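User: Sequence recovery, please. Input:
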């Protein structure tokens, strides 16, 4: 049996401009075509919104104002002992233009995609409920339990 690590807490931002959602690559170096909302692991002693604003800036160069939480999503890979909880927040940016040549200092995010709801049929995105939360959200926070981790 694989030894479990502590549950990882992460934050992600839902940024919409011109009815398009900002997504980034989920794995560095082309290991996967999976896309996700920008964000990342939480550092201790910073609020979740402060962590998210930092992560969005690192990954995209955008300055985000973090709004309300709209989704809690869990995913895991039991065979690897991995379990992560992502808290998604609605975020707002005054200028949605990612600076040309922006480079994630951690080297994870190398792609930025502005996608429409129709684009979701042709791409791999996690979590499964993301399109519904982005475009059909009724204001009540949603919860997704234990999706399998994909690569």
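Assistant: Recovered sequence (151 residues):
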């Amino acid at each position: 049996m694989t030894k479990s690590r502590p549950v990882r807490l992460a934050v992600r931002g839902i940024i919409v401009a011109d009815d398009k959602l900002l997504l980034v690559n989920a794995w560095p170096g082309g290991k996967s075509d999976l896309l996700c909302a920008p964000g990342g692991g939480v550092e201790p002693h910073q609020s979740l919104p402060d962590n998210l604003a930092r992560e969005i800036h690192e990954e995209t160069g955008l300055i985000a104002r973090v709004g309300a939480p709209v989704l809690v999503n869990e995913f895991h890979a039991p065979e690897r002992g991995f379990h992560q909880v992502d808290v998604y927040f609605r975020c707002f940016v005054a200028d949605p233009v990612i600076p040309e040549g922006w480079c994630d200092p951690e080297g994870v995010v190398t792609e930025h995609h502005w996608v429409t709801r129709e684009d979701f049929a042709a791409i791999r995105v996690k979590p499964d409920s993301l399109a519904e939360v982005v475009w059909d959200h009724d204001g009540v926070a949603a919860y997704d339990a234990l999706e399998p981790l994909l690569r």
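The mean pLDDT is 91.
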